[in-house]
């Protein structure tokens, strides 16, 4: 990228920036008076108390269960942090962590890449664009039970259409849900399939704020399509991108039905994520303490990841 092109991209971005060199900074809202602050406080207090009551009690009760060795009907004896240490020392737990990380990375960035690409495509004039948009939303609109049943029909058995297609091309008859590696790949692809419409809508909403004149100015300065994408599209949609990453990370880590309805966590725990592992501990093994401990560790991890991405949201600004 030449120096003149860099200057042109920067000038084009500044054309839409809220402030920049030679532009007056926007007026800052003055601080609320103490009386107004008190009024807002008393108006918000009932809602805050209601949220604390609804969410606080289950959280406290879950913390009690995580420090006891009880069951669903009995709290049991107090064991302190023994459940956490047992979980962290379990090989099955770390195997679930490994799959959860892979599942989340593929789900977040795979669906984002597909969604952003389709959002950029929909900005162009294509035949039957309205119908195309509706069809692209179907994987997200259709209930997950229906989607998982359809994917089971497509790949579950040797006689399924996908297996028959592989066999027709002389590639054997792969067992997509019986082989551990293929099952993990299938589940990750299924997650991208059901999630890309959400990322497409987030990206499309962000792209509407980018004026076409910015691209025209960049083209006049000699910027290529790729330079416009990396120098204009990505920076101007960064805030929306980080928000969608936060939401999709939470969706992926907490996604139970996508995995359980397709593979049940198998074969040989190859697709067992943390939320599936916690479910098994509580509702199949009746070990409430370790299961809730896993949930607390998941929550802590999500808080850390969300906080890190939120800092990036605050930092992302157009220069």
Automatic annotation (TrEMBL):
Region annotation Disordered: where it falls in the sequence: 1-31
InterPro entries to which the protein is assigned, alphabetical: MetI-like, MetI-like_sf
PROSITE patterns xrefs: ABC_TM1
The keyword Cell membrane is assigned to this record: yes
Keyword Transmembrane in annotation: yes
Protein location: Cell membrane
Domain ABC transmembrane type-1: 97-309
Residues passing through the membrane, by range: 40-64, 96-122, 134-155, 175-194, 242-262, 291-310
Topology with respect to the bilayer: Multi-pass membrane protein
Broad class of the protein's primary localization: membrane
Keywords: Cell membrane, Membrane, Transmembrane, Transmembrane helix, Transport
Family as reported in the entry's similarity comment: Belongs to the binding-protein-dependent transport system permease family.
UniProt protein name: Sugar ABC transporter permease
